[in-house]
Amino acid sequence: MNGSTSSNAVLDFFSFLRRPSAERIVASLRSKLGVVGIIIALDILFGFVGNLLSSALEGLVGLQPEHVTETELESELMFFMRTIGILVIPFIEEVGFRLWLAPNLLFLFISFAVVTIQFAPVPFASLLKNAGLEAIAPGVKIGFYLLLGAAIVLFFWLRERKGHRYADFFNRHVGFYFYLSVIAFGLVHLTNYTDAGPWWYGPILVLPQLVGGLAFGYLRIRLGFWYAVLAHMLANLIYTLGDGMNALFGEVGGVVWLALMLITAGVAVGLTLRRKPTSPQRISPQVDH
């Protein structure tokens, strides 16, 4: 199914949030990278607001997220961890939370397995404990969720054999897929806190991650998986450079970097909004790659 929407990335982003669709942007590589840049700018601006609110709540109720400071680690190890945070963690998170945002059953299985094996509770934990089999709990967990994921995929595969294509199901329910991925991505970051307080603190504490989920999910559906990975890596790089400025030049360096980020992002979004929107073709994916 072909369609057309605004080529203005800012307007299209908010239009997508109101009514997600599986339509893909058909444009040049340069144009797609421009969209990535604008979405990163939006992530910076709204993520900053989210950080203000979550930090205010942390200070108000005395919550303390777990952070690893430079003084706790050798500089070489800290560099390694930052590199992991820029290159490896974004890829793993995109596989787990957004690879499945496409009409592809293999992607669905991979994402389900990555997320559940990492974050879901151990099944039959009390039975294993009572039987003295706690040592095999990790293997039971992996096997259980792999089988559960396989059962879900088998269900959709059998439906396809009867003429009910998974691609059609995905395209009809893409909004559910999208917002489920956003919520899951935000909530797992509550593990950054040893005690996150009452449940209704959660959405505020993870507002920056919810904003990131909206941004990267949009890119994954509109452009493709690797554009979401690229945006996630670049966003982490930008924030890591801010930490580096703070470490090198103290609080002043961090403030200057933050101001530079916000001004650059604001100018980019403002210039984009001033452009006259056109209507490029978009196409709903049937099988994603």
Give the topology.
Elements: E1 2-4, H1 9-18, E2 24-25, H2 29-61, H3 75-97, H4 105-119, H5 125-130, H6 137-161, H7 166-172, H8 174-187, H9 202-205, H10 207-222, H11 225-274, E3 281-283
Antiparallel strand pairs: 1-3, 2-3
Helix pairs in contact: 2-10, 2-11, 3-4, 3-11, 4-6, 8-10, 10-11
3D structure, described in words:
This protein has 289 residues and is mainly α. The protein has one domain (2-283). Helix content is 70%, strand content 3%. The chain contains eleven helices and three strands. The chain has helices at residues 9-18, 29-61, 75-97, 105-119, 125-130, 137-161, 166-172, 174-187, 202-205, 207-222, 225-274, and strands at residues 2-4, 24-25, 281-283. A three-stranded antiparallel beta sheet has the order 1-3-2, with no helix packed on it. Helix 2 (29-61) packs across helix 11 (225-274), helix 3 packs across helix 4 and helix 8 packs antiparallel against helix 10 (207-222). It starts with a strand and ends in a 6-residue tail after the last strand.
